[in-house]
Amino acid sequence: MVGSARFERATSASQTQNHTKLDHDPSKSSKSPNLSLTDNDFKGTLRNTELLQVDDYIKAGRIAAEVRERAREKNWVGKTVFEICEEVESEIKKRGAKCAFPVNASINEIAAHYTAEPNDPIIIQDSDLVKIDLGAQINGYIADTAVTVCYDVQYDNLVQAAEEALSNAMAMVKVGVKASDVGRTIESTIKQMGCKPIANLSGHSLEQYTIHAGKSIPNIWSIGGFALSENTAYACEPFVTTDKGGGFVRNGQVKNIFALNSRKKTKDEEANRLLDFIWENFNMLPFALRWIVNEWDEKKARELLEYLVKKKAVQAYPVLVEINEQRVAQAEHTFIPNENGAVITTQASINST
Fold first, then answer.
1. How large is the greatest C-alpha to C-alpha distance in the chain, in angstroms?
2. Quick check: is 86 catalytic?
3. Which end of the chain is more exposed for a tag (fewer CB within 10 A), N or C?
4. Catalytic residue at 133?
């Protein structure tokens, strides 16, 4: 539990979730993916259920990639954060998937975890660096991907460093590669481009209805670490800041992304109805206040969420801010390793490396 929910506007937002993104208790996940990929073409002896899960990961990835590329190409200057989040989420749904989490539209020094409040008035300026982090899910199988949109050439190097680090990481991943070595590649790429990696943010393993399934892919080299497995999907997401940055993030005051911790009933009947609504609509995946205001008015929804956070039935995630308040860029893919490389589910055109 991160603490009591606060609903301040993000005029000076910040946050950190140690070194993981939207951490969640994997013991509360319903099923694990149980993939069994044998080569780059998905040939081999897979049970029907395993084939279905692979297909769901691929479908979710294709949709997420299409929506990400659309977000990359669009000029968001003059648009509100609310318009960005609502439009991107609508594009995911339009293509037949569900949102795996609220779209993050994190601006400048805010590294992650800012999603729009209802009718959020924050407007994108032409000097802003905006990280659009989105997730699509099919039957709970998730594609997690992100792009940084930038309209000021002085920050192009940050964006390029994040993209280059991700590309180099994807070129080396396969079954048996250590996550720590992936982190080494990310770190060296970023530093060679005169930038700093965010050390306490990382990629993560994925499972059905679970964004962070317990394993982390670091953005820096670290001792030890696990080896990538063929039966797991992972998200790799380099975060990059300037050479003046501290290379770490901290928790901010704003907390506007939530997730279910427990379905245990409270003494408040209306709060219990909200718990049931969350479970039926989002399972254990994160959600936003925006997603429940059609069922409850905004004031009541805030009150119920605060109550459920206090009772530890719901977790509230703070935004993450670079400790020196330097700008941050991000790039992200979801991939499934195999013996010959990896299937990058969120590539615009799925290829194996």
1. 57
2. no
3. N
4. yes
Q: Which of 89, 163, 207, 237 is catalytic?
A: 237
Query: Left if phi > 0, otherwise alpha if psi is -120 to 50, otherwise beta: which for 281?
Result: alpha
Structure tokens at 327: 């700008």
Task: Give yes or no: 56 in active site.
Answer: no
Spot the catalytic one: 204, 207, 322, 333. 204
Helix, strand, or coil here: 210?
strand
Three-class SS state of 200: coil
Residue 332 bears catalytic tag: yes
**Residue in this structure with the two tokens 């030890």, named with its chain if needed:** 224
Q: In the chain, what are the domain boundaries? A: 26-253+318-344
pLDDT digits over 32-67, tens only? 322 222 222 233 333 455 666 889 999 999 999 999
CB 53 within 8 A of CB 142: no
Residues 93-117 pLDDT 10s = 999 999 999 999 999 999 999 999 9
The dihedral built from the CA positions of residue 276, 282, 285 and 291, taken in this order, carries a sign that is negative
The CATH class for the domain spanning 26-253+318-344 reads alpha beta
274's CB contacts (< 8 A; 6+ apart) are 292, 295, 296, 301, 304, 305, 308
Residue from 56, 109, 120, 133 carrying the catalytic annotation:
133
Q: Point out the catalytic residue in the list 23, 144, 163, 207.
A: 144
Residue 102 in tokens = 């609220």
Four-residue CA torsion sign, 278, 282, 283, 288: negative
- For 323, residues 6+ apart whose C-beta sits below 8 A from its C-beta are 245, 246, 247, 248, 249, 250
Residue 288: phi and psi, rounded to 5, are -120, 160
